[in-house]
Structure formats: C-alpha cells, structure tokens
Description:
By secondary structure, the chain is an alpha+beta fold.
Amino acid sequence: MVWCDKRESVLEWGSEEIIIPYRSPVDNKMHRYFVDFYVKMRKKDGSIKKYWIEIKPYRFTQKPEIPKRKTPQFMTEVMNWGVNQAKWEAAREYAQALNCQFIVLTEHELGFGKTYK
C-alpha cells in the first residue's frame, strides 16, 4: 500500500496478517477470516491507534434488496451478505478486545470516482 508507505504517521502496516475465527451462517461451521490490512498510526494528538481495515466494493456492504423473483444470483448475494456480516461482527468484537478499531472502506471512502449500486 503506497498510501501507508508515504505517510509519516503510519508506524507499521501489514496485509492479511490478522486472522479471526468466525461462525458462518451458511454452514454453521467455524472458518478463518483474513482482514485485508492492519495499520498502526500516530494521530495528530500524538496518541497511537491501531486499525484493522477491510476493503470492499460499496455494493457488497449493502443488504441485498429482495427482488420479485428469487434468482440463484440473489440467493448467492444473500449468502455472501450473511457471511460478510458474520466476519465483520467477529472482527469488531476481537478488535475491540485488543484496543483496535475495525473498519470497512469502500470506493466512497477511498475517493474513487465510480460508484456502484
């Protein structure tokens, strides 16, 4: 991540270093979730903050709308939504216990021009 390498405030960072166990609502089994990024930063007030960051397209962060006809594509979207919610809830709880903050960033937060619905 060039952004991290070019920021003096970034003290350390890594990719897919945080592994979080979560229970999938699809098969009710335990799985491992690899968070996209870990970033340790010095804030403007001098304090240190640790972030666990997931990068996803905006459309994957929105609950699927129920169509008139429940197609296989819709069913896949619902399963993916459920799995992502389980991963992210486990990540939030685990991060909070370790004094970190878990966040999901999309193209909106990252400043990309194209948006998805």
